[in-house]
Each structure stands twice: as C-alpha cells, then as structure tokens.
Design brief:
The complex is a heterodimer of chains A (712) and B (127).
Chain A lengths: L8 H23 L8 H14 L3 H18 L6 H44 L3 E6 L4 E4 L1 H7 L3 H4 L13 H12 L1 E10 L5 E12 L5 E10 L1 H23 L3 E5 L5 E4 L1 H7 L7 H6 L10 H5 L4 E7 L4 E11 L5 E9 L1 H23 L4 E4 L5 E4 L1 H7 L3 H4 L13 H12 L6 E7 L5 E10 L6 E7 L1 H36 L2 H11 L5 H31 L7 E5 H18 L3 E5 L4 E5 H18 L5 E8 L3 E8 L33 H11 L4 E6 L3 E9 L8
Parallel strand pairs in A: 17-19
Antiparallel strand pairs in A: 1-2, 1-5, 3-4, 4-5, 6-7, 6-10, 8-9, 9-10, 11-12, 11-15, 13-14, 14-15, 16-18, 19-20, 20-22, 21-22
Helix pairs in contact in A: 1-2, 1-3, 2-3, 2-4, 3-4, 16-18, 17-18, 18-21, 19-20, 20-21
Chain B lengths: L2 E6 L3 H14 L3 E7 L2 H11 L3 E5 L7 H11 L4 E6 L4 H10 L3 E4 L4 H17 L1
Parallel strand pairs in B: 1-2, 1-3, 3-4, 4-5
Helix pairs in contact in B: 2-3
Classes of the chains: A alpha+beta (712), B alpha/beta (127).
Amino acid sequence: MGTMKKLTVKGVLILSFALACALLAFYLTIFKGETRVYPHLFYIPVILAGMWYGKKAIYVALFLTAVYILATYYSPTPISIDVLERSAILLVVAYIIGLVSEKKAQMDVELKETKDYLDEIIKSSADAIAVVDMEGIVRSWNKAAEGYMGYTAAEVIGESNTKFFADPEEADRIMERVLRDGELKNYRTIVLSKDKKPVHISMSAALLRNKNGEPIGTVRVSRDITKEVELEWKIEEERDNLNLIFENMVDGVYIVSRDYKVEFMNKVLIDEFGDQVGDICYAGFHNRDEPCPRCKNPEVLSGKTVRWEWHSRRKNKTYDLIETPLKDSDGTLLKLTIFRDITARKRIEEELRAAKERYRVIFEHTLTPLCVIEDDNTISFVNTEFEALSGYSREELVGKKWIDLIAEDDLEMVRNYCDERRKGGAAACCFFKLVSREGAIKYVNARIEPVPREKRCIASLLDITELKQQENKLRETCERLAELDKMKREFLSVAYHEMRSPLAPIIGYASMLEPKLADREKRYISIIEKSARELEERINHMLELARIDGKKVELTLRELAVRDVVEMVVRNLEPAAEAKKQGISTFIPQIAITADEQKLYTIFTNLISNAIRYTPEGGRIDIVVEDRGEDIRACVADTGPGIPAEHLPKIFERFYMIDTSLTRKSGGLGLGLSIVKEYVKLHGGRVWATSELGKGSKFFFTLPKREITKKE
Amino acid sequence: MKKRILIVEDAPYMREMLVEMLEEQGSDYEVVDIAVNGKEAVEKYKALKPDIVTMDLVMEVMDGIQAIEEIKKYDPTAMILAISALGAPEYRDAAMRAGADGYLWKPFTVKNLTDELTKLVVEHQTK
C-alpha cells in the first residue's frame, strides 16, 4: 500500500516542473505555432511524479495528458491517433512507474521495519551480541553484553576484543576456528568483566561475509553461564563427596546395570570380594553362566526397592541388602545395592536368643514362684511354681492385676510398699498374704526387684505358709509354756506357804517341849526340830530359785565388810561342823565391798554348809578371801571325797545331783549351788570349782568390789 | 502389867499353839481373844482394844495385810506383829508398809516369838 507523501519541497518542485512543462507546451504550440507538441516534455515530469508519488502519479499524468491533448488541440496539428496513443502511453508509463516506485517504497519500509526489528532483538536480547571485524575490533555491542561485561557500547566499539578474554590468546583461537568452520557453537570460555571478574560464557559465532562472499567479520552471541558452571562444579563436588562417602562407608555399595555389568564397587566391597568393576556380576561373584535365581535385578529395575538378607556360604557371613533403582545421568536405570555385614549382629542375636532361652528355662523351672509385673501392675509372665502357688493357670494370670491376689488386709501395706519400692526406698523383701484361687491363704515373703532400665518388676515369692503355720504352732506352744511357767511359779509360791505352814507347829511345839523333857527325849525333840529346819531350808531354796527364774530378785546393795558376813555364817554353822568334828578356819583380810548382805550371807552359807555336809567327820574346811584390787576372790575348800571331773561343769546347774540313786548319800535337792551361781552372777561375779578325787574340792567365786553398773 | 494380845490366825493348830506359847509365859502376856480372819480381827480389835495383835497374813474373807491397814487406820498406835510362812521379802515389805510393827517368819520357836514381842514392846515404848 502506497504511502501518501506530504507535500514536500521535492513534490512542489516536481509539480512546478510538470506545470512548467505544460505551460511550455502551451507556449510553444499556441504562441510559437509549433506544429507538434513534444510529448517528451510530459514524460519527464510523469516519470518524476511516478517515482515520487507512486500510483498517484496517474493524476499528474492525467493532468499532463489533458494539457497535452488541449495543447495539441490548439496546435496546428490536428489531434490524431498518435496523440491519443501517446497520451495512453503516457498514462500507462505513469501508472507503471508509479506502481514500481510504490512497490519499491513499500519494500524499503519493510526492509527498515525488519532492520528495526532485528535491532530491537539485538538490543533487547538476553544474550550478548557483538560484532567483531576481521582485525578483532569490536563493531557492535548490545545491552546484554553491557550487562555482564560492565562495559558500555561506547567504551568498547573500536577497541580490540583481545583484552576481554582471561586468556589473551583466546581471541585468536576463536577467530581461527570461526574462519575454519564458518561457525562456532556453544564454545565455553572465560572473559573478564570491566571490574576484572571472570565470567563464564557460552559463545556461538558466525562469519559475516560481504556481497562477494569475502569474510568481513564475525557476529558473536554469548551467554553468561557462570551460575551454571558453578552449579556444575557443585554437582561435581557433591558427586565427589558422594563417592567419598561410598568409598569410606562401612556398608558396601555396589551398582550394577540392566545387563548385569558391575558399574561401581566401593572400597569395602572390593576389599571383601575383589575388584569386579566392569565384569558381569553373576560370573564375577558367583561363577555362574546366568543370573542368580534370587537376583533382584528385574524387580529393582522395574522400580521397586527390595530389602533382603543374604548369607554368603563362601564368606560365612550374613548381609542385610537394600537394593533400589538408581537413575543414571542419562536416565538409564541401574541397581544400587547397599551391603551391610550383619554377621556380628546375627551372632549377638543368636546369643541373645540363647541367653533368653536359658533364662526362660531357669525362670520356668526354678522352685521359686516368679512373676513379672508391668508398670500398670498387671502380670505379664508367670512360671509353673507361681501357677502352683496361686492355683490360677497361666492364661488366667496374664493380664490380671497382681494386687488382686493379695489378701484384703494386706492390700494397703503392699500398695505402699510397691510405691516406696519404685522410688527405691523400701527394703527388697515384703511379707504378705496371698489368696489362692481356692481361697486359701498363702503366707509369702516376696522380693520385688525392678528390672534395670525397664519399668517392670520381677517378684520372686517364697511360700512360707508352712513355716508360718509352724511358727503359729510354736507361738501357741510358747504361750502355753509361759502360761504353764506362770502357773508353776504361782503354784510354787502357794506350795511354799502351804509346805512351810505345817512346819510352824512342829518347830513351835518342839521348842515348847524341849525344856520340859529329860535328856534322852530332849535329843529326840532336837532331831525333830533339826529335820524340820532342814526341810524348811530346802523349801526356801526352791522358792528362791523360783523367784530368780521369775526375775523377782533384786539386789539391795550397801557397803559391808566381808569378814563380818563370813564370821556370822561360821557362827551359825559351827554347831553343825562341831557335830561332825570338823575344823573351820578362815583367812579373811578386812575388805569392804558393795554387795547385798543377805545374798552374800546365803552364798557363804550354802557353800560352807555344803562343805560340812559332804566332808567326812574330822575333815577340814578352809575359807580364804583374797583382795585382788578390782574384785575379791573367795574360796571354800574342803577335804571331802572330791567331785569327778565330768561333773564339775554341771554342779552349778539346777537340780543337778551327782548321785540320783536310792543309795545316795545325804544331800538336799542340789539347789544350793545354783542359788550361789545366780547370786554371784547378779553381783557381776563368776563362780567355779576345782576338785581332786579323794583329796577335796575348792569352790571359788569372785565379786566386784564396787557396785556394778547395772546391765539391762 | 500384862500385855493384852489379840491372836489372828486361821489355822486351828497355830491358834492353839500361839495361845499356849503366850500363856506359858504367864506374867507378861494375856490372850484376850482369837480372830479367824481379817474381818473378825478388825471387829474384835475395835471392841477389845488389845495392846498387841499377832496377825497371820494368809486368811479367808479378809487377808492380814488389809486387816493391818484397817486397824492402823482405826488406831495408829496399835501394835501389830505379822506372822506368816510367806518368806519372800516383798510380803514382809507389804506387811510393814501396811503398818505392821514386826514380822515373824513361820516356823518359829517360843524364843523367837517372845524375842520378837519384847522387841516390839520396847520399840513401841521408845517411840
């Protein structure tokens, strides 16, 4: 489509020239009388107008044609076919020229638009575009190039491109290659930006040629690929790291392709199985001609991850294998296998299982009833003995609260105990009653032990029901015995009174009778009196021991002279000794001790009267008391028959009589020495005897001089 | 002047013996009455006001200890000699605490009895 040009100076000139030609034609024909009108006068303006106005030149041509016809009309030459012909030619020429010129103008516009468009592309292209001539001088430089290089077009156009490259020879190399190949594709190089920073670029270049096909320069399109390069490096680095991990991990890593080719083995695996990289796995590892029957390759390559255990008979090792598909950089699926040697774990597992079994057997077959109690007090395990104790079956017990087995009245105590035990406070053992399935009460002593690092406890029970029953029986017996003992003591107390009472009239009347009788009868009555007194003494001894047993005896301590006590005793017993013609001698220093006078009197009386009793007529009795500083030691020695050695340790025992036969010599009940022993003990002293058969016996005792600090 | 004595004793032989022992002394003592238990003893003491009471300890109805207490409560100057076969010191102590002025241990001879009574009278007079 033609563009209507504005009326320009050129247009005005053309129109003026056409008008001038028209006027000249008129002038020549009308005023000069030229016979013919020169059509050339019209051709020139028509051509000019056609070139300028395009098809609109037809109007100029019409006008000029009209002028030509009009001029011819006025000229002497009549209007002929020639004129019409010329006019038509004029119009056609004008039209053709207009058409051609318009076409050309249109082409020019399109050309310009294309150029503008290209310029626009170049300007706005993300890629840097530069034109470098054959001398290496930069001729063109777009915005994008400014962007990453930092130089503006003004700064670089006209400069050599050498200085842009990190390697100065790079410029020549590129030019050489472009010249050789006519182009360069995705060539990677490093350029330096204005602030001397290296920039990775990917460059494509093409050769520019002139009309004659001679190279005149190169156009270069480059892209900043620094980020991609860095990313690549990073990927590279990560791949290296990954390889490093693979190489150094304890697990074996192994990659095999679809066609069973070993692509990768890490160090662990190579150490274990030898380097098989590049070989076919089934051949290399297993000496087979075809894939192993259990090979997971098909499964894994279909996208599944498989985990399985493999036992190598050759190595006698067990491996935990994880096999998973792995996509190669080019998208090929490979199989990645991670080998973990679990031989040790397997062994430990086996040992653990064996140990568990061992403990289970012990747990099950021990004679101790055992149960495992969980944190919520439910029973989780019991053994046979526990079943037997509780009367419940295993099935009934598991899940049951163990507290439910405990007797009502012990419940609170056991609960408190358990709480304490969990806190680690209580003693290991707890005693309580258990109610069996049949309702029988079982006495148990339980040891409740928390399992270390677990919340459960193991309770081991000791069935002490029988013991308890025996204990109860024993207690009953003890109580009965205590009762009997009390009865005995009460009986003794009464018996004592009742036995002594009849002695009162005997002795009383005897004493009344005595002065009234003749010598012979006097002797009889004195024997009656003496016998009654002896009976009285024995009754007294029995009472005293009963009182000692009943712990009713207490000491009334005061300071006293030992000699005075002994002399009083000897005075009392002298008549008896004289009757047997025995000599009594005393050797007693003046010693004061703190003691119970009554008891000391009894001690000496019993020892000396014993000596008198057992020593034959004419014998000797020596009483010696020694001051030993802290205590005194008294000795009553006789010249009697002596005591056999086997009897010596027992003579101080209650009711002990050396001779119990009916033919025994006169003697008493054997209580005198036990009373001595008890009284000496009460004072904190010691009593013992030595004897030589046929020569005599010595009875010793010690008494502390000071009041003993009362023990218990 | 003869001392008037009330004998308290549940055993017949003992009663008899005590009476004879005291009467044999002739000049010093006179048995004014005999009681067979504590209750009777208290009643007879109140009625007769004897100088001395010989008091058995183990008796029916009212024992000797109680009787001693009753009599002493009624007459703190009463002279009482406890006579018993109970030999343990605690009985003696109990009798003395109740107010007995002496304690004679059965069995005893005439001499034992008269000595004890003499001692009692002397001690009483010195009070």
